[in-house]
Amino acid sequence: MADTADITQWLDAAHEGDADAMGKVLSTLYQELHAMARRQLAGQQGHTLDATALVHEAYLKLVGRREAQFEDRAHFFAYAASAMRSVVVDYARQRLAQKRGGDLHRVTELPEEVEGGLRLDEEMLGLDTALTRLSEVDERLAHVVELRYFAGLSELEIAALLKRSERSIRRDWQKARMFLLASLQER
Question: Domain span at residue 108?
Answer without folding.
Answer: 4-186
